[in-house]
Design a protein that fits this description.
This protein is mainly beta and 389 residues long. Helices cover 12% and strands 43% of the residues. The chain contains 5 helices and 27 strands. The protein starts with 6 loop residues before the first helix and ends with a helix.
Length: 389
């Protein structure tokens, strides 16, 4: 993905675009799910004590149909496929702040200007910030001149001025910023009528700031699973994987607290299935469709222990893994499996989202109906945006 040259920017200080690359490790990019650690196969800090992200597999077979079939309204194809996610933020996010040691003492210009972790930096001196490397170069060439940032914090935008100081061999502001994230998750379903997909069942969050990352552009990508870190009490397990192709599978259109949504370039095969309404989902036996290795999606037995009130957007289901094969392979729910479809009575009722830190056999799920509503909303918004362009 290329950034355009900005002539005005060039006049002031070279602020050129960069080609973004991704690596499946926390040192370069990090992804964290809401209120948990690890749905995306990256080691992420838990935001809510005792909860993290998850996935599944069993001896049963998933829906067998190979041909793409026409779906009735409200029907989708459950997937359970592991996939890679590449996401670029709208602006750069302030991940954390740190002190700078200078000849005049210790300071943090960014903190002194009122910036906080989780803020988005949209513009620098009136010019769009393309990437974190662009911003670092701009500040590095500032020679200590003040930089005025347009900042977005939640729903509000404001301006603040930061004066870089010289310390540790360069001009710095005391900000650590991030412009992208990458990781592994699970596709929940595909809608053959719209070409849309839904996945994860929770938003992609910044690992340090803990907030849902604002999407600028992004894409689903093919991955190869290459190992499992088995979960245990106090330490969530993890699916290991790597991007197996440079080619995109489609486009990300939305990243919010209920999941990620977008379009796929190639249709998915399978049998369309009804989606249970929220009030139809009941405690009892279910199957989870998930990929934990290169053999693809499989069905694993589980049980819904509790259905929480439908007025909350996420953490609607409390689920327990009962399948011996899955328990032996993963220890239960592991990072990288968020988004794994939950089937009840031959219908899609939800998706796995989190794992309990004190018991990896247990976790949370989200209503499938919620994800379908969000998917349809993203589809309509994309059409409106195209018509307005």
């Amino acid at each position: 993905m290329k950034c355009e040259d900005n002539q005005e920017f060039g006049k002031k200080r070279a602020f050129c675009g960069a080609l973004h690359t991704f690596a499946m490790s926390v040192g370069i990019t990090a992804v964290c799910m809401l209120a948990t650690v690890g749905v995306l196969g990256l080691e992420e800090p838990s935001i809510e004590p005792g909860v993290q992200a998850a996935a599944f597999e069993t001896a049963s077979r998933p829906p067998e149909a190979k041909a793409v079939q026409k779906a009735e309204d409200g029907q989708v194809i459950p997937l359970g496929e592991a996939f890679g996610i590449k996401l670029f933020t709208d602006g750069v996010i302030v991940a954390s702040l740190s002190d700078i040691y200078t000849t005049g003492g210790i300071c943090c210009p960014a903190a002194e200007a009122g910036l906080r972790a989780g803020d988005y930096l949209i513009e620098a001196d009136g010019m769009t910030i393309g990437s974190n490397s662009d911003l670092a170069a701009y500040i590095g060439q500032s020679q200590g001149q003040s930089v005025t940032f347009r900042v977005r914090r939640g729903e509000k935008e404001f301006e603040t001025t930061v004066t870089p100081v010289f310390g540790e061999g360069a001009f710095r502001t005391g900000m650590w910023v991030r412009d992208s994230a990458a990781g592994v998750g699970t596709l929940t379903f595909y809608d053959p009528n719209t070409g849309m997909f839904a996945g994860l069942g929770h938003g992609i969050c910044d690992a340090d700031a803990g907030s849902v990352m604002t999407l600028k552009t992004g894409e689903p990508a093919a991955i190869t699973l290459c190992g499992i870190v088995k979960g245990q009490r106090g330490e969530p397990g993890q699916l290991r994987g790597y991007f197996s192709s440079d080619e995109s599978m489609g486009r990300l259109l939305a990243n919010n607290e209920t999941g990620v949504y977008g379009t796929l370039d190639s249709p998915k095969e399978g049998t369309p299935m009804d989606v249970l309404s929220r009030d139809e989902v009941k405690p009892g036996p279910v199957e989870i469709l998930a990929s934990i290795d290169g053999s693809g999606p499989r069905l694993y037995s589980a049980e819904i222990k509790k259905v929480n009130p439908a007025d909350q957007p996420t953490k609607n289901l409390v689920i327990s893994v009962t399948d011996k094969r899955l328990l032996e392979s993963t220890g239960g729910i592991v990072q990288g499996m968020s988004g794994a479809p939950i089937l009840q009575g031959g219908k899609l009722c939800g998706a796995v989202t989190h794992v309990f830190m004190d018991d990896p056999t247990m976790g949370y799920g989200i209503f499938a109906e919620t994800m379908l509503e969000q998917c349809n909303s993203s589809y309509k918004q994309d059409i409106e945006d195209k018509e307005a362009a």
